[in-house]
Write a structure and sequence with these properties.
The chain folds into two domains: 1-40, no CATH class; 47-158, Jelly Rolls (Sandwich), CATH 2.60.120. The strands form three sheets. The chain has a four-stranded antiparallel sheet, with no helix packed on it. A four-stranded antiparallel sheet has the order 4-9-6-7, with no helix packed on it. A two-stranded antiparallel ribbon has the order 1-2. The protein has one helix and ten strands. The chain starts with a strand and ends with a strand. The chain is mainly beta. The chain is 7% helix and 52% strand.
Amino acid sequence: MAKINRLDVIKKLIDGLGLEISREKIATEVADKVIPTFDLTPDKNIRVMNENLSDGTSLVIFTTSTHRRTFITSCTLTVSKDVNNASINSRVSGIIESIGADSTLLRIRYEPLTAGNHMHTINFNPPLEMQKGADLNLINSNGTASIDSSATISFYELE
C-alpha cells in the first residue's frame, strides 16, 4: 500500500469527503487497486475591474501583477455614441503572454450616423494569460463627437 505523506492531500481528502476527524479514522494509505484523483490546482478568486471613458481616447483599466500570473476569463465592452459621430472604434487591448505583443481582446466598430448603444461580451476558455506588469487598456478612436465606453474585465491571479 502506498502511504499519503502530503498534508495538503490529506486535508483535501477530509474536506472533499466531509469527514469528521473526531469520529472517523482518516485514511493515509491507498490500497493497491484504489487510485484517488484530485484537482490540486489552486483555488481561483475571480476579480472584476471596470472602467468608464467619456469622450476620451484611452485609459488603463488595470496593470497586471509583476510577480503573479494573470489570467483573463472574460471581457465586456459597452459603447454609446451620439448622432453626430460618423464612426467609432472602441477596443480593449493588452499583451497576451503567448503572443508577446499588444493584442485586441474585444472590439466594437460602429459607423452609421445614428445614436446607438452596443455591448459585446467574450468568455475566454481557456483563460488568456497576460504578460506580467502590462497594462490592459480601453481605447476609443475615430470619434468626431461624444463617445461613452465602459470595459469590464474578469480575471484571476496565480503565484
